[in-house]
Amino acid sequence: MALEVKICGINSRPALAAAVDGGAAYIGLIFYPPSPRYVDIAQATALAAAVPDGITKVGLLVDADDTLIASLLARVPLDMLQLHGSESPARVAEIRSHFGRPVMKAVKIANADDVAGAEAYCGAADRLLFDAKPPKGMTGALPGGNAISFDWRLLAGRRWSLPWMLSGGLSVSNVAEAVAVSGTPAIDVSSGVEDRPGAKNPEKIRAFLKAAQAL
After folding, report:
1. What is the C-alpha to C-alpha distance for residues 39 and 131, in angstroms, rounded to an integer?
2. Full-prediction pTM beyond 0.85?
3. Which residue, among 210, 190, 211, 212, has the nearest Cα to 201 in the 3D structure?
4. With CB atoms 3.0 to 4.6 Å apart as the test, which of 66, 106, 124, 173 could cross-link to 89 if both were Cys?
5. pLDDT digits (tens, 9 = 90+) for 43-54
6. φ and ψ at 79, to 5 degrees?
7. May I ask the CATH class of domain 4-213?
């Protein structure tokens, strides 16, 4: 089976075109204002309208309330919600049921206990995403997109009842190793295809997708 790739933090038409033309399976739009990759509803609506059928449009949210989610979905035709905050399994299940969208829950990993904690979401979410937990004291740390990775061996040989995806510090230079070590069937990249935080480079997007497709 081909490795699926999600390009997250899309915030421009050139970046979107590179992701679409390069064969991305998922496009991520970030609705978290502190992120340098944040898009407002007007930007997201325009970008989503340019995504062809067959590519999953994912909206990334961080501890969002129902009012925000409802206003977002009223304007932006998202296919999936990605919850990247401290949402509990109960909150994940509530969002999934109330809004009728598949939900991907990000689980932040630093050690084996964090990996074990993912099991609690298997009855609530539709997909898991494993990202690096920012180290304590990291200046300017975001919920995701910090250009840091974790020990991929923590995921090696693990199985869950849900589809899953690997994120955190991935780039052209390490994606082959990350996939080989973790065994992941899908990958998510954001900072690894940027010139600086929030500035996607279309050529880096194309190169990453080409490298991933060669695996």
Report:
1. 21
2. yes
3. 190
4. 124
5. 999 999 999 999
6. -95, -25
7. alpha beta
